[in-house]
């Protein structure tokens, strides 16, 4: 079945390591016949969640009027959602986390999706990414009631400057993961 893929690219570096991994994932997915769209969060103006709870009382409308409205629409229409971002201080970078918090407004929309994580980081091994694996699993687990799925994750280890990930096994893994959708 043809799937719709939405990649949320969290790094401000559009040709950075996480973004390049996302491109490999997309290349694989497109070769397998799926549709893919990538959004650079750095191009979007998204305010932090206010925690006001209005969205929980009014059917999922956030009181903030910003670019998140466009992202909600794209999330709604996607079968597969990919979080591609750099690890900052053992967790999501700020732009990525801001969007994840705002998705609180549309929790029911996240119930039957498949989620992937493509994360870049300077650290050399998975040992440094345990917090990230935990965060990813627990985040999507918040919407598990409807049966969403963990598709998988890839870390671009030991990457610092944009492009460091090129030629590493992380790029191959990202491609293969997209291809296997
Ligand atoms: C503020 C900041 C915090 C960072 N914290 C971590 C970290 O905790 N773990 C890690 O492996 N790399 C860390 N890094 C390195 C980046 O994750 C790494 O350079 C990554 O390849 C950047 O991905 P990008 O090219 O997609 O932006 C940090 C970088 C910055 C700027």
From TrEMBL:
E.C. numbers: 1.7.-.-
Enzyme category, top tier: oxidoreductase
PANTHER family (UniProt xref): IRON-SULFUR FLAVOPROTEIN, NAD(P)H-DEPENDENT FMN-CONTAINING OXIDOREDUCTASE YWQN-RELATED
GO molecular function annotations of the record: oxidoreductase activity
Gene3D superfamilies in alphabetical order: 3.40.50.360
InterPro entries hit by this protein: Flavoprotein-like_sf (IPR029039), FMN_Rdtase-like_dom (IPR005025), ISF_SsuE-like (IPR051796)
Keywords from the named record: Flavoprotein, FMN, Oxidoreductase
Taxonomy, superkingdom: Bacteria
NADPH-dependent FMN reductase-like domain ranges (all copies): 4-132
Record protein name field: Flavin reductase
Stored Pfam families: FMN_red
């Amino acid at each position: 079945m043809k799937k719709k893929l939405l990649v949320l690219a969290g790094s401000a570096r559009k040709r950075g390591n996480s973004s390049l991994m996302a491109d490999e994932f997309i290349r694989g997915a497109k070769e397998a016949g799926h549709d893919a769209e990538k959004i650079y969060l750095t191009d979007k103006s998204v305010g932090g969640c206010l925690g006001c709870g209005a969205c929980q009382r009014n059917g999922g409308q956030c009181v903030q009027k910003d670019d998140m409205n466009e992202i909600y629409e794209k999330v709604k229409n996607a079968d597969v959602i990919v979080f591609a971002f750099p690890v900052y201080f053992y967790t999501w970078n700020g732009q990525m986390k801001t969007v994840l918090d705002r998705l609180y407004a549309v929790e029911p929309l996240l119930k039957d999706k498949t989620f992937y994580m493509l994360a870049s980081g300077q650290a050399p091994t998975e040992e440094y990414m345990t917090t990230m694996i935990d965060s990813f699993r627990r985040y999507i687990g918040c919407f598990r009631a409807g049966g969403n799925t963990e598709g998988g994750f890839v870390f671009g280890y030991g990457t610092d400057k944009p492009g460091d990930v090129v030629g590493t096994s992380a790029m191959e893994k990202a491609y293969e993961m997209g291809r296997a959708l």
